[in-house]
Design goal:
two-stranded antiparallel sheet; elongated; single chain; four-stranded mixed beta sheet; alpha+beta; 18 helices; 8 strands
Length: 423
């Protein structure tokens, strides 16, 4: 006999279904799907294309920089020690302790030793968790998947995001999106506010090697200078400001010859002003103007720079970075975008905490909005600044990688530049 409507009414309303698990990123979703199908080969394929993070004490990491220690835990399910490894979306927010180190599946396979834990636990405690024995035969299987992933040559430059644990809308997301050109280029989630990067030691080494940042004070100094666009060359900004002023005066395109001519007049006028009598706290002073040779050298340098900028802009238009008839207004975006990144790099190196990093990202976003009119406008300024600093008109990877990232961010339906208003 089946229960009728009356019986159902007596039982009361049905319990609401438990919400479906929301994977933090595509990596965890792919692991979950493979596990649900029982397709462990596909599960390993995903692991072979990502990085796995393991925790260590900060004291140990500082005492032995670059040395990786496996810190196992006792797992009730296996009844053995396990090494817990996490994919990027499963990491906790950065805290003073512990810190994390990351490596590829291939690295783990090659460096696992006989005394290391007999099991690897991937994302333990989550719906996409899995446990794998670590015998030589099993590690050989890991290496085969890693070799297949390497042979597939998957494109690194692509849009990645955290769907849980990373803002997708609002002011913080806007500030994070100002660093998206570099994060897309590096294959990192653009909205990873709680940032671990490539791990604690690599984050510290990157800042020391490329920025001279070795502690909290030097990180703060770099962060402040970038937010204020104080690292961008004054000469670059001078040249662009001359053209910007001319464009406002004449409400139209400015020829390169006219741009060069006016830049020379401004430089010479500024040199002549150097001989003016000035009132200072010390009294009346008269400064000596620079000599003709120095002025001529400045003029020649700026005119060469104007030629470089014009050639880059022509290539920008050909490659879709700039619309026809448009020009780059400023390269301050080169600093503002890196300010967004520096906030997170400093967090990864533990030179600041999450709240400080978030405030720095917000400042970078506000500075960008004050200087630019759109994501496309910002992007062109960022790319030109990067090229002027590194590319030397070779149109090599410094340029090509940014064009690829620009196209992704301006066309992908999931891009923050398509979903977060500039203003």
């Amino acid at each position: 006999m089946t229960d009728g409507p009356e019986a159902a009414a007596e039982q009361g309303p049905a319990e609401p279904a438990a919400p479906a698990w929301q994977a933090p990123s595509e990596v965890e979703q792919q692991l979950y799907d493979a596990k649900a199908r029982g397709d462990w080969s596909a599960y390993f394929d995903v692991l072979a294309r990502t990085e796995l993070f393991i925790a260590d004490s900060r004291a140990a990491a500082d005492a032995h920089p670059g040395t990786v220690r496996f810190q196992p835990y006792w797992d009730q399910r296996t009844g053995t020690p396990c090494l817990a490894a996490f994919t990027i979306g499963m990491l906790p927010a950065p805290a003073p302790d512990p810190v994390f180190w990351c490596g590829s599946l291939d690295w783990y396979a090659r460096n696992w030793e006989a005394h290391d834990p007999p099991w690897l636990a991937v994302n333990p405690g989550s719906p996409c968790e899995a446990y794998f024995p670590t015998s030589p035969e099993h590690r050989a299987l890991w290496q085969r998947h890693a070799a297949a992933a390497a042979a597939s040559g998957q494109e690194q430059i692509r849009l990645r995001a955290l769907h849980v644990g990373g803002p997708l809308h609002g002011p913080v997301a806007h500030g994070l999106a100002c660093g998206a050109l570099l994060f897309v280029n590096n294959g990192e989630p653009w909205n990873a506010m709680a940032y671990h990067g490539g791990g604690y030691y690599p984050a510290k080494k990157l800042l020391a090697d490329h920025w001279g940042v070795t502690d909290r004070a030097t990180w703060q100094q770099a962060q402040e200078r970038l937010t204020a666009a104080d690292m961008v060359s004054e000469v670059w900004e001078f040249a662009l400001a001359v053209r910007r002023s001319l464009a406002l005066d004449f409400a139209g395109a400015v020829s390169v010859d006219h741009w060069r001519s006016v830049a020379e007049r401004v430089l010479r006028h500024n040199a002549e002003r150097g001989a003016e009598v000035k009132l200072t706290p010390e009294g009346v002073t008269k400064t000596e103007p620079p000599g003709e040779a120095e002025v001529a050298s400045q003029v020649a340098g700026v005119q060469r720079l104007i030629g470089r900028i014009a050639r880059y802009e022509a290539r920008f238009r050909a490659d879709g970075v700039l619309p026809e008839g448009r020009f780059v207004r400023s390269v301050e975006a080169w600093d503002h975008g890196r300010a967004s990144c520096m906030a997170r790099w400093g967090l990864g190196a533990r030179y600041c905490d999450l709240q400080e990093a978030e405030q720095a990202v917000l400042h970078a976003g506000r500075a960008s909005r004050n200087a630019y009119r759109s994501w496309e406008d910002f992007s062109a300024g960022f790319i030109l600044g990067r090229c002027l600093q590194f590319d030397e008109e070779e149109f090599g990877h410094w340029y090509a990688d940014m064009v690829t990232a620009h196209r992704i961010l301006t066309t992908d339906p999931a891009s923050p530049w398509r979903n977060i208003p500039w203003e």
